[in-house]
Amino acid sequence: MSRVSQPWPPVAVEPAVPHPKAPVAGTELGVHFNECFGCGDEADAGLHLRSTVGEGQVVHSRFTVTAAHQGAPGLAHGGLLACAFDEALGSAVGNLMRRPAVTGKLETDFRRPVPVGSTLFIETRLDGVAGRKIYVSADGHLDAADGPIAVSARALFIVVAFDHFSTHGDPEALEKLAAQHEKNQREREERGWEINP
Ligand SMILES: CCCCCCCCCCCC(=O)SCCNC(=O)CCNC(=O)[C@H](O)C(C)(C)COP(=O)(O)OP(=O)(O)OC[C@H]1O[C@@H](n2cnc3c(N)ncnc32)[C@H](O)[C@@H]1OP(=O)(O)O
Questions:
Q1: 75 lines ligand 1 (CB under 6 A)
Q2: Which residues cross the membrane (predicted)?
Q3: Which mutation among 124, 158, 168 tests ligand 1's pocket best, with the greatest number of atoms within 8 A of CB?
Q4: Which terminus of the chain has fewer Cβ atoms in its 10 Å neighbourhood, N or C?
């Protein structure tokens, strides 16, 4: 079976223009929710993925594979790797576009095994927008930003109204999230004062 995929994006798109208030290149992106399996500090066996905005419409993410992430002995579980890409791609959409969006479709190509102890460097690009549909793709490089590509992914995110989360999610967890965002905002402002007194 060939690895050649269908054209991407699969429909005519407009360029994905980052939000005017999107974080600039070099910005380290914070945890979007402490309990998030992908990035949260409170998710003990989680991925603890960390992301930084790159030049252009790019976000660089990285995470280190631990024993908690195994499928075969000593190797990362494929579904776990897909999760890492979901997080990295979602972080690029959320932070650069600043629009609430959820994963509609996620496609992964596993090219090389990813051993426990290795770090995956994921580079995510915004590929285009068609109405509520945002197309993104990413490559995961093994152990260095220019290391061999171990996994690639492409995803469709769908912009949703904020009530998607209140209707389908946990209101208590949403309150915690709002409190966390306020705290992060305060800390950012305090850091701003330190830099520009
Ligand atoms: C700072 C912050 C950081 C934020 C950082 C965040 C990082 C977190 C990252 C994790 C993100 C996740 O895992 S999110 C969790 C996983 N995903 C979900 O739970 C989503 C579950 N699915 C849904 O709720 C729903 O199916 C939606 C919302 C995706 C779509 O429902 P809808 O709103 O009714 O819209 P619908 O008309 O169906 O679809 C809209 C358009 O998209 C197309 N479409 C929809 N799904 C698909 C699909 N799978 N494949 C192709 N096309 C699709 C439709 O054909 C349509 O095209 P057209 O007719 O307009 O042409």
A1: no
A2: none
A3: 158
A4: N
State residue 5 phi and psi, 5-degree precision. -95, 170
DSSP 8-state secondary structure symbol assigned to residue 4: P
Q: What's the rounded Cα separation, in Å, for the pair 153 and 18? A: 20
For the complex shown, is ipTM > 0.85? yes
The domains found in the chain, sorted by start residue, are 28-159 (3.10.129.10)
Whose CA is closest to 11, among 124, 160, 154, 164? 154
Q: Which amino acid is at 29?
A: L
Per-position DSSP letters for 128-166, written without gaps between them: EEETTEEEEEEEEEESSTTS-EEEEEEEEEEE--THHHH
Q: Per residue of the chain (197 residues), give pLDDT as tens.
A: 667 678 999 999 999 999 999 999 999 998 989 999 999 999 999 999 999 999 999 999 999 999 999 999 999 999 999 999 999 999 999 999 999 999 999 999 999 999 999 999 999 999 999 999 999 999 999 999 999 999 999 999 999 998 999 899 998 888 888 888 888 778 767 765 544 43
